Amino acid sequence: MLPVQCRMARAALGLAIADLAKLAGVSTNTVVRFETGAELKKSTIDALRSVFQDAGLEFIAENGGGAGVRFLKPARAQK
């Protein structure tokens, strides 16, 4: 997850920095540092990413079109 993807994911879910920090179990300063480009421990980034993935977001890798975030399609209901 890139810092810009973190900002996009927060916007998609309508989360404030403080909301994300609380859900991920980190400080608000940690979220701000990450979103402004500071390097964090992998475990901290994983905690942030887990919040978004648990909310149904998926991170799109840079593949010529730029990195992004999208909502996962809901699973088809079984008949």
How would you describe this protein?
- The protein has a single domain (3-71), classed as lambda repressor-like DNA-binding domains (434 Repressor (Amino-terminal Domain), Orthogonal Bundle), CATH 1.10.260.40.
- It is globular, with a radius of gyration of 13 Å.
- With 79 residues, the protein is mainly α.
- α2 (17-24) packs across α3 and α2 crosses α4.
- The chain is 51% helix and 10% strand.
Query: What share of the residues lie within helices?
Result: 40-55%
CATH topology, anyone?
434 Repressor (Amino-terminal Domain)
> Structural class, judged by helices and strands?
mainly alpha
Individual helix count = 4
The description of the largest β-sheet is: 2 strands, antiparallel
In one word, what is the shape? Answer: globular
Q: Strand arrangement, largest sheet?
A: 1-2
Roughly how many Å apart are the termini? 36 Å
Low-confidence segments, ≥5 residues, pLDDT <50? none
Number of domains: 1
| Beta strands, count | 2
CATH homologous superfamily - what is it? lambda repressor-like DNA-binding domains
Radius of gyration: 13 Å
Mean pLDDT comes to: 92
